[in-house]
Design a protein that fits this description.
The protein is of the alpha/beta class and about 325 residues long. The chain is built from eleven helices and 14 strands. α4 (about 80-90) packs parallel to α5.
């Protein structure tokens, strides 16, 4: 591929999340959204009409055969992510797949094996790794020495979500993998080393589905990680803490936070592009420059590690 060539990108899944990725690609000077795919005509045509996309497909296989794509972005319902990504990886097409990369660790291991066979690159969209606020907090704490402890929380109301009827039953039963997985992958990345030991618990507290989770982990670098997730809470809440030598970072979600350094409080600014914009740009730069997916991104080795931890906590 020449340096000046536009990357030809395909999009699978034209719902709200897919539309967000499509709008990002549409703003890039060196990439073109070449084709969209969705089995449902209404979202497919709505997205394609907004962005002026002529190539529209019901089936991924047909899109890959016809459109001559350099990369594909997968944004389908969570329980279909692994199957959709598998089609692209088996065809040798570089793929960015939304989280989770399957609802079972075995699905993610299968994606890794398929990518190894075909040579396709695959990145999983754990965009907290690209959040400028979280990245700044990690850097500032690490400047003082090794991280000592990391805390992550992710709470959401599964009861309301279930009542709305917008999520398929397989995902409801494994909803821990749908949203709180962001927090687990984030604390893994923050800790900076593989997990050596994990003690996880889960239960059905309010919902008929498993809804309360906790884990205490120790990483190979000694960092202790604590994760809590409750998906029958009163409201959505995401929070992180990073503690080091005389320094702590407290993050409320992905947009606000502060440092406490030797007792002095300073605000975190987190200057930089939004998480998803930076993530999509990074993926496409890897494709353009023909380099492997590497830190801070989540490749399939990293994704397998996250999914296996999820399984240990979930009780699979």
């Amino acid at each position: 591929m020449g340096v000046e060539a536009e990357l030809r990108v395909g999009l699978v899944g034209c719902g709200p999340r897919g539309l967000g990725h499509a709008r990002i690609v549409a703003q890039l000077p060196d990439a073109r959204l070449e084709a969209v795919c969705d089995p449902l005509a209404a979202p497919r045509d709505r997205l394609a009409d907004e962005l002026g996309i002529g190539r529209r497909y019901e089936r991924i296989e047909q899109m890959l055969e016809d459109a001559g794509l350099d990369a594909v972005l997968i944004n389908v319902p969570p329980h279909l992510n692994a199957a959709a990504a598998m089609v692209c990886l088996e065809a040798g097409v570089d793929t960015l797949v939304e989280k989770p990369p399957g609802l079972y660790a075995a699905e993610t291991r299968a994606l890794r094996a398929a990518a190894a066979r075909s040579g396709a690159r695959c990145m999983v969209a754990f965009n907290r790794r690209f959040n400028p606020l979280i990245a700044e907090a990690k850097r500032r704490v690490a400047e003082r020495g090794p991280l000592v402890t990391v805390v992550g929380e992710f709470h959401k109301n599964l009861v309301d979500i279930e009542r709305q009827g917008r999520i398929a039953e397989p995902t409801l039963e494994r909803f821990f993998y749908e949203t709180p997985i962001h927090a687990l992958d984030c604390v893994r990345w923050l800790a900076g080393a593989p997990v050596r030991e994990v003690h996880g618990v889960s239960r059905r507290a309010v919902s008929r589905h498993r809804d309360a989770f906790g884990a205490l982990m120790q990483c190979e670098n000694g960092c202790i990680v604590h994760l809590v997730a409750n998906i029958t809470s009163g409201a959505r809440l995401e929070r992180y803490e990073i503690h080091g030598a005389g320094i702590s970072a407290y993050l409320k979600g992905v947009s606000r936070g502060h440092l406490v350094v030797d007792g002095e409080v300073t605000k975190l600014t987190g200057n930089g592009a939004g998480s998803t914009e930076a993530q999509d740009r990074y993926f496409l730069d890897c494709i353009r420059n023909e380099r492997p997916i590497g830190p801070p991104a989540c490749d399939l080795d990293e994704a397998v590690a996250t999914m296996e931890l999820m399984a240990a906590i979930h009780g699979d």
